[in-house]
Amino acid sequence: MKRRTLLASGAGAATLAMMGLPARAQDKTKVGFVFVGPIGDGGWTFEHNNGRLAVEAAFGDAVETVYAENVPEGPDAERVLTQMVLGGADLIFTTSFGYMESTMNVAAKFPDVKFEHATGYLRADNVSTYSARFYEGRAVQGHIAGNLTKSNKIGYIGSFPIPEVIRGINSAFIHARKVNPDVEFKIVWAFTWFDPAKEADAAKVLIEQGCDVILQHTDSTAPQAAAQAAGNVYTFGQASDMGEYAPMPRVSSIIDNWAPYYVERTQAVMDGTWTSVDTWDGIGRGMVGIGEISDAVPADVKASAEALRDSIASGAYHPFTGPLNKQDGSAWLAEGETADDGTLAGLNFYVEGIDGDIPS
Amino acid sequence: MLTLEKRPQPSKAWVYAAPILAVVITMIVGGGVFALLGKPPLEAIRTIFYDPIFGDFASYSRPQLLIKAGPLILIAIGLSFGFRAGIWNIGAEGQYIMGALAAAGTGLAFYPMEARWLIFPLMILAGFAGGMVWAAIPAFLRIRFKTNEILVSLMLVYVAEAIQASMALNLMRNPDGHGFPGSRNLSQYPSSANLELVANSGVHWGVMAALTAVIFAYFILARHRFGFDVRLAGQSPRAAGFAGVDAGRLIFVCLLISGALAGAAGMFEVSGPAGRVSIDFNVGYGFTAIIVAFLGRLHPVGILIAGLLMALTYIGGELAQLSLGLPGAAIQLFQGMLLFFLLAVDVMTSYRIRFGKTE
Lengths: 360, 359
What we know:
A: Rossmann fold, Rossmann fold, B: 2 strands, about 70% helix
């Protein structure tokens, strides 16, 4: 598919808009992926890349996948996206929150190309959003962490203070407190998704402050390594299983499983049935997996954690079930009431009991 | 046996040959690395250096080259004055951030007033001022307390990053942004938008500023007394002292120029391509510009070419990732090699190789 002639035939935004139009009578469906970290990060991007590989495995020669890694959020992302479209991509997954505006801008210029943006909230006729209910996994982590801690201090490495991260902190805290009323959270903001040096520093600071369990919302295995060096500190794999650190310090993990979704959406493009949707799946539909709970966790705790996981999966239990108050003591959810998705999507406050302020 | 012998005069020919040779060696060694990765080396080199300018979609990527090269050239021109005089401002990244924040703050303060004739020029001035103030700190500390400007300017980058994060989360946060960090989009606010001057050309005000800076720098270095002082101080600080060059004043002016231009680059970026202040809005232009400055031999025209070349490796590198599946790290390695080989080849400018025994 040569689009050179089209490009040469006229300058101006009108041409850009037209470039998406040439009939896609083609042999292969081309699927693009834009990654915020390196595919070898062992966490977030690693799992998205596994999803990409799953698409290749599922469709074989019928698809071609392309990707760009370490793409900064901002104007660079817009350029990479445009280049992907010009290179013939039919469907593009943009796998970080910060790509939201770039995705919308490029999508507006190429109405015939489908875009899927992870963790955002802006949609269009050719832009879907998808995310996973990681907070469900955080509930299980909190449950285990609250049981394991002896110092009653749990460290949490936050990435950016956006609702997704705040949901995770709240969910973990609620379930840690449930099993251990003395538990305290110490939260460090790294302001990065992936920076092994910063993440290691954050983990060390938390360990020095007496935390013996560390939860992370950043993507590298550096906190795991720091915990291993410290000895008696428990961690959880983030985004990926990080099983190389099992059974200690990694005692369990949240695994993002994007593969079924990526395969399903690619299929939809091939069938011509793709429509713009907003997907938010959790443990029940397999988008969030709980990595094997290792032997470092006592058997009864493991059993109750698995029971919690299963009740969330079946829908019998919602991690945000009242009574819950906001940090300032005002009421949020009444007895038995569950949080609605709208509130959760924009969650910007801590629940009662968490010390410290969300950076603002 | 090989020995290096100092040339009585730096070789003129090598001054020009070194960058070209460095690019050629980078292509050869880089091609070797790509081959080891199992990718076709010639095709990879062609994708990086040729396709963005003459490839199928060059009408898109050519303007992108200017957008990417603009801030690099603008910052590198500013740095070149200090570097020539032996004054090492390594913190252009911080000055870039502070210029962007000052400009964005100015623009947001007027929101939603419609007065482009007032607001846009004010933002440019704020960009200059923001970067200048940030560069004045290492300048002052160096002159007053003899602190090392390399360390101070570098450390101030991290301070600037922290201020930037705080701005994106607090003072400049978009009130209509669903609680997400980041400011309003300045490129969508007519009074502050740094738009393309000619549609699809990639030429926005920042690119114009970069070209203007190249021309000004050329004449200042070639014709102006200040340019003479800068060159003299770099070649021989003692001679400069005898010639009546005020060392303190020179440090101050050099750092302020580099700070101002880095701040302006931040201004044009935040009001144009980037559009908004976010927690990590900076993407390393201030550091890459150091490579550009040296690759361009600290000469204005050289910097212009080096900036475009660097932009080419970014955009061509992305194309190589997309079309050949080259890993992103291989591209970064490739860019790093460019500076490495330049420095290595640079030895030839001041030294020559002698075969045989030393006396």
